[in-house]
DNA sequence: AAGTGGTCTAGACCACCGC
DNA sequence: CGGTGGTCTAGACCACTTG
């Protein structure tokens, strides 16, 4: 239908059938424009789409090369837990466990260099049963509003997403044995695995918040899909 | 420097400082073009960038709206394990454990509907120690070449990535207790957690391969970062 | 130095979809 | 129906980076 989609499909086909094998160089934009009889901008549109998909790389003067596919890129989406639970048709519940103000020494990972921190522990429930334990530190220097928020009715996660702009988030995903806190609050037995999502949120080099979200491994997994390039 | 970057930054600023709060509608492209005194195409470039970043949504006639940020999107990149190990400066090792041809009944998840399958079990080592256990099923109907490949010197993972084009990959990340196979081959003790990466690879609705990659949780985690929108 | 991709313009027409 | 974003053109100039 749209020229650039056909062109992208054709180029993809040539990559897949080894007409342009991994590592090889594609013709210039102008050559492609002539071949497909379209404007250069239309070729750029198609190639940009393939760059996003991670299939080709482009550098000035060097040209356009087919990437040697060595890894699988996909888009990871970790929603606010309330939305995830509600969209599954289950009932969401929330309980604040504790909330205190600490000095920086509480931050063992060195993410916060110097700041007064708020430490919040909260539980998210699915159909009345514990589902996610949220263990969070908030930089009060950067987010002073958080000092006066009790988090009794809204979770820190949701409050922060609504209130605070961020510029980058680093996420760690890992497996652990349930900690004492996990066992107590997630109501699982000692020796069970938990799935951990840890996030560090930053606004232009200023650390805003760090959170450890733990889940019973039997009830939680993360799913992600590559964009279907066709 | 480049107009579209400045424009994107300005718009981002207005979103962050609530000039255009979540849910509100931005001016049309032509209005913005007039305000910033650039061509409409330049405005489109800036807005497209924000769409990719997940900050705004656009629909014909409805206009451009600020997204109510309810989740964090990031790009997940799971490399071939050999490259990951080698780039960390460690030495990579590989060992084939078993390779057989099975009937479909081996596929308990129903990913492969009907096909003759090759089942391969292999171990990836880091500095001589077990690091990743690869448990893979390959659709021989779709990838007949795999029937004659012994996988004695190259891992199925790497062979497939080099040989087979795919169109989509679904990835599951989860925590489990080590299975008997995990305990035996990863040389961990019973009752330890493992981190599982499971992938289902498809070419235009045809299932190609499914793999379960297990790792000692103490040695493996996944890291991902959002694109830094500034 | 020169060739390549990157940005921008000023226009045209189209397609979707909300009113 | 009409207003919005989506696509496309034919040009121009620029900036990077490799040989």
Helix-strand blueprint:
2 copies of one chain form a homodimer.
Chain A (H helix, E strand, L loop, with lengths): L2 H14 L8 E2 L2 H8 L3 H13 L3 E4 L3 E4 L4 E9 L1 H7 L4 E11 L14 E10 L2 E11 L16 H8 L4 E10 L2 H7 L6 E11 L2 E11 L5 E4 L5
Antiparallel strand pairs in A: 1-3, 2-3, 5-6, 6-7, 7-10, 8-9, 9-10
Helix pairs in contact in A: 1-3, 2-3
Chain A binds a DNA duplex (19 and 19 nucleotides) through helix 3.
Describe it for me?
2 copies of one chain form a homodimer. Chain A has helices at 3-16, 29-36, 40-52, 81-87, 156-163, 180-186; strands at residues 25-26, 56-59, 63-66, 71-79, 92-102, 117-126, 129-139, 168-177, 193-203, 206-216, 222-225. Chain A has 230 residues and is α+β, with helices and mostly antiparallel strands. Chain A has 2 domains: 3-66, Arc Repressor Mutant, subunit A; 81-219, Chorismate lyase-like (Chorismate lyase, 3-Layer(aba) Sandwich). In chain A, the strands form 2 sheets. Chain A has a 6-stranded antiparallel beta sheet. The longest helix of chain A is centred in the N-terminal third of the chain and has 14 residues, at 3-16. The model of chain A has no long low-confidence stretch (mean pLDDT 93). Chain A binds a DNA duplex (19 and 19 nucleotides) through residues 2-4, 28-30, 38-42, 44-45, 47, 58-64.
């Amino acid at each position: 239908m749209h020229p650039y989609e056909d062109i992208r499909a054709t180029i993809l086909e040539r990559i897949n059938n080894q007409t342009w094998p991994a590592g090889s160089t594609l013709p210039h934009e102008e050559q492609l424009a002539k071949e497909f009889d379209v404007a250069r901008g239309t070729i750029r549109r198609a190639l940009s789409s393939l760059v996003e998909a991670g299939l080709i790389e482009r550098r000035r003067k060097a040209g356009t090369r087919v990437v040697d596919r060595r890894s699988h890129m996909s888009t990871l989406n970790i929603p606010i837990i309330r939305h995830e639970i509600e969209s599954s048709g289950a009932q969401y519940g929330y309980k604040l466990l504790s909330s205190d103000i600490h000095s920086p020494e509480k931050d063992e990972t060195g993410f916060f260099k110097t700041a007064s921190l708020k430490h919040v522990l909260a539980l998210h429930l699915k159909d009345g049963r514990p589902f996610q334990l949220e263990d969070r530190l908030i930089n009060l220097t950067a987010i002073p509003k958080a000092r006066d928020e009790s988090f009794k009715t809204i979770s820190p996660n949701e409050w922060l997403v609504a209130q605070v702009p961020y510029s980058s988030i680093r996420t760690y995903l890992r497996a652990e044995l349930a900690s004492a806190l996990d066992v107590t609050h997630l109501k699982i037995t000692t020796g069970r695995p938990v799935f951990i999502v840890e996030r560090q949120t930053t606004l232009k080099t200023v650390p805003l918040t760090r959170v450890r979200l733990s889940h019973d491994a039997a009830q939680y997994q993360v799913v992600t899909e590559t964009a279907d390039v066709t």
